[in-house]
Specification:
Layout: H1 2-16, H2 32-37, E1 41-50, E2 55-57, E3 67-81, E4 88-93, E5 120-127, E6 134-135, E7 142-144, H3 150-164, H4 167-170, H5 176-190, E8 200-203, H6 206-217, H7 231-237, H8 255-268, E9 275-278
Parallel strand pairs: 4-6
Antiparallel strand pairs: 1-3, 1-5, 2-3, 3-4, 5-6, 5-7, 8-9
Helix pairs in contact: 1-7, 5-6, 6-7
């Protein structure tokens, strides 16, 4: 159980960090709502060709040197978020050269997908820092059509986008799962750092903060699954620490132990205000 807590802490730290800086720290794909919120465009499409020349670009703004990106031309079949009337989208990825037989693989990134012509699926992509192409920044941001849960991933994406229109209102839904989903969307929005850096923290609306905390505390605490929205993971993303009165249970024999600790903290600290990251470009 302690190993699980450590893993959750690392994941929460990764989710609060800039997307481009955590690609190499992949442990498991983020839950669907996180991927949707962190993406500039979400659509179903098919790779129809590669551009004849690779392009040089930095993988993230702080990188010292550029790397080569291969640019796939993706035909857009269904827009879910972020696009308007685009028929095709340029999606870049860093190609990995396969090793010769018997030789180990050297170099290459473990983040985004290695696209192939003819590949079709759900793309969750972000604009590259240079603004000239999109990229799927990490593992899980492309879901192949052949994947067993493809239809479920598309349905989740559509539901998340619909809730994003007024997530605060959904926090007052009678359905606990909907409240937790709305909380996860807002936490991903507020607790992910954005360029330009450094970010500062600001308090969010007091009533909204209370609704988010209650959605977490009153959710169904089921066995942990990296692929699903989990109240324990969301709580860790908030950055709550000992200075806020939080003390994790020393002995954890079941998920109920952590749930009970979170319940007790929320009851005692109902006026706590969640903080959001604000980039240098935001006012």
């Amino acid at each position: 159980m302690r190993k699980r807590l450590l893993a959750l802490t690392l994941i929460a730290a990764g989710l609060m960090a800039p997307v481009g800086l955590v690609q190499a720290l992949r442990i498991a794909p983020s839950p669907g709502p996180v991927r949707i919120v962190n993406s500039d465009a979400v659509f179903v499409g098919r790779v129809i060709e590669f551009e004849p020349m690779d392009v040089d670009a930095k993988p993230f703004p702080q990188a010292k040197d550029p790397v080569k990106y291969r640019i796939g031309v993706v035909k857009v079949n269904q827009i879910i978020r972020g696009l308007k009337v685009e028929k095709t989208v340029r999606v870049g990825f860093i190609p990995v050269t396969p090793p010769k037989p018997g030789e180990p693989r050297i170099g290459g990134r473990r983040g985004g997908p290695q696209l192939e012509v003819g590949q079709e699926g759900l793309f969750m992509v972000s604009k590259h820092a240079n603004g000239k192409f999109y990229q799927a920044p990490d593992y899980g941001y492309f879901v192949p059509l052949a994947q067993q849960d493809f239809a479920s991933e598309v349905a989740t994406a559509k539901k998340v986008v619909a809730i994003m229109v007024n997530a605060k209102a959904v926090l007052e839904s009678k359905d606990a799962d909907e409240r937790l989903l709305a909380a996860s969307i807002l936490i991903s929005k507020y607790r992910t750092q954005k360029a330009p850096f450094p970010n500062k923290e600001e308090l969010i609306d007091a009533e909204e903060s209370k609704l988010i905390l209650n959605a977490i505390a009153n959710a169904k605490w089921e066995p942990f699954d990296f692929r699903k929205t989990n109240p324990q993971q969301l709580f860790f993303q908030l950055g709550i620490s000992a200075k806020d009165g939080w003390k994790a249970p020393m002995k954890i024999n079941s998920p109920n132990d952590m749930r009970d600790a979170v319940h007790a903290w929320v009851r005692a600290h109902g006026e706590y205000r969640i903080k959001r990251f604000v980039s240098g470009s935001e006012k």
